[in-house]
């Protein structure tokens, strides 16, 4: 298997879901030592200038992804810049009864060392991140990071 998928349904329309996922990522992304590249300096996260960036307290940043497709309100694709493989993460937003299904697919796991690919294949981190995103409509569920 060279990809892993995670999904969640949120009670809003696809355009709003796309906007909140992208423009408001810093509001729903949970801070924690496991959710940052540099936990000691990280103060925020945002999509800007064609990249997904972790912002640092000293004014610096690290680019964690390079945007490959930005197609509101339907989909967003970025290339992973943190791992040594050639990976893409696609997030698709589809209208369903009662809201929007958000499906995240992380592709290219076969380009990673087996131990790293195995960790990502379990899908644990993406399920947590989508839980943070959906949590804003479900109260405080999923708001703690390790």
From TrEMBL:
Tell me which residues make up the Activator of Hsp90 ATPase homologue 1/2-like C-terminal domain.
14-111
The UniProt entry, under Pfam families, shows: AHSA1
**Which InterPro entries does the protein's record reference?**
ASHA1/2-like_C (IPR013538), START-like_dom_sf (IPR023393)
* Sequence intervals crossing the membrane: none
**Gene3D superfamilies given for it?**
3.30.530.20
The family note in this entry says: Belongs to the AHA1 family.
Mind telling me what this protein is named?
Answer: Activator of Hsp90 ATPase homologue 1/2-like C-terminal domain-containing protein
Record organism? Nonomuraea gerenzanensis
